[in-house]
C-alpha cells in the first residue's frame, strides 16, 4: 500500500507540471511568434512482484507479474506550427511564412533565433540599424547588422518576400541595399533552448543553424512585411487540456486518500 502512495504522488507532481505548461500557453496567447508547448510523460520503473517461473521445473509464466511505480515528465515540446498572420501598420513588422527563424545578436554577443518579427529602427553609434524591441541587432544573411544607408529616410525602406531590402527616392526609383534578412532553419527546432524574450539558442539537439540563402535543398520561407505572426495557441484546446489535467490530478489525490484509508484500516485490525 505504501507503493501506491508514492505512485499517486508522482502522478500529482507530473500533472502539476502539465498545468504549469498549459497556464504558460494561455498567458502567451497574444505573444508574437509564441509556439505552444505540450507536456509529455513517461512511466517510471516496473517492479517484479513474482519470480519468472511458477513451478519447480522452471516452466515460464505466460504473463509476467509487474507493477508500475508511477510517472514523470519526459519533456515540454514546442509545437512549431504556423501561427496566424496579423496585419500591422509598422514597416518594420515582419512575419515568416515557413520553417525559418530570424537571427539576432544578443547582449552577450551570441546569436539567437526568433519567430518574433516585431522589429524597429534604432539609432546606433554611426548609423540606423534594425533591432528587436529590446535593442538587439537583427542580422542579415551574412551575419551582419542591417543598416540604413546614410541620407536615406527609414520610411522609404522596404523588403521583398525574400527579405531583400531596398529603398525608393522621391521619384519612385528603386535602389537595392544589398542586404537580406537572415532566415535560418533547423533539423529539430523543438531542440532549441528557450532563453526568454522569444529568443532561442542552438543546442546539440536542435542541430546547427542552416542559412536559407546558402544551404541548398531547403524549402525557402516567405517574409511578409507589415505582418506579424501571432501565437499558435488554441484557447479551446488548452481549456480542454486543463480540464483533463485537473481531473487526472484529482484522481491521483483520490488514490492517495484510498491508500491512506487502507493503511488506517490495517492499523485497526487488532482493535
Q: What key attributes describe this structure?
A:
alpha+beta, elongated, 2 domains, 271 residues, 2 helices, 22% helix, 4-stranded antiparallel β-sheet, 3-stranded antiparallel β-sheet, single chain
Molecular structure report:
- 26% of the residues are buried.
- Helices cover 22% and strands 30% of the residues.
- The protein contains 2 helices and 20 strands.
- It starts with a helix and ends with a helix.
- Strand 7 (101-105) and strand 8 form a beta hairpin.
- The strands form 8 sheets. It has a 4-stranded antiparallel sheet with strand order 8-7-15-18, with no helix packed on it. Strands 9-10-11 form a 3-stranded antiparallel sheet, with no helix packed on it.
- By secondary structure, the protein is an alpha+beta fold.
- The chain has 2 domains: 2-48 and 65-79 and 233-267, no CATH class; 85-229, no CATH class.
Brief write-up:
This protein has helices at 2-27, 235-267; strands at residues 37-43, 46-48, 66-68, 71-78, 85-87, 94-97, 101-105, 111-114, 120-123, 128-131, 147-148, 157-159, 164-168, 174-180, 183-185, 193-196, 199-201, 210-211, 222-225, 227-229.
Amino acid at each position: 500500500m505504501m507503493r501506491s502512495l508514492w505512485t499517486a504522488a508522482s502522478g500529482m507532481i507530473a500533472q502539476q507540471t502539465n498545468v504549469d505548461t498549459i497556464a504558460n500557453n494561455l498567458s502567451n496567447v497574444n505573444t508574437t511568434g509564441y509556439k505552444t508547448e505540450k507536456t509529455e510523460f513517461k512511466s517510471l520503473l516496473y517492479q517484479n512482484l513474482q519470480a519468472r517461473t511458477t513451478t519447480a521445473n522452471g516452466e515460464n509464466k505466460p504473463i509476467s507479474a509487474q507493477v508500475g511505480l508511477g510517472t514523470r515528465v519526459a519533456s515540454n515540446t514546442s509545437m512549431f506550427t504556423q501561427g496566424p498572420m496579423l496585419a500591422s501598420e509598422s514597416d518594420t513588422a515582419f512575419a515568416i511564412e515557413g520553417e525559418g527563424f530570424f537571427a539576432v545578436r544578443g547582449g552577450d554577443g551570441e546569436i539567437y533565433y526568433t519567430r518574433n518579427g516585431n522589429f524597429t529602427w534604432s539609432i546606433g553609434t554611426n548609423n540606423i540599424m534594425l533591432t528587436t524591441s529590446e535593442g538587439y541587432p537583427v542580422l542579415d544573411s551574412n551575419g551582419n547588422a542591417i543598416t540604413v544607408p546614410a541620407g536615406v529616410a527609414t520610411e522609404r525602406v522596404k523588403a521583398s518576400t525574400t527579405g531583400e531590402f531596398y529603398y525608393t527616392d522621391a521619384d519612385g526609383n528603386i535602389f537595392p541595399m544589398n542586404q537580406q534578412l537572415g532566415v535560418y532553419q533547423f533539423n529539430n527546432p523543438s531542440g532549441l533552448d528557450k532563453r526568454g524574450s522569444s529568443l532561442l539558442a542552438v543546442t546539440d539537439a536542435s542541430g546547427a543553424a542552416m542559412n536559407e540563402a546558402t544551404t541548398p535543398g531547403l524549402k525557402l520561407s516567405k517574409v511578409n512585411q507589415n505582418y506579424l505572426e501571432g501565437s499558435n495557441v488554441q484557447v479551446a484546446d488548452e481549456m480542454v487540456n486543463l480540464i483533463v489535467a485537473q481531473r487526472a490530478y484529482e484522481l491521483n489525490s483520490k488514490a492517495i486518500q484510498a491508500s491512506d484509508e487502507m493503511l488506517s484500516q490495517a492499523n485497526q485490525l487488532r482493535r
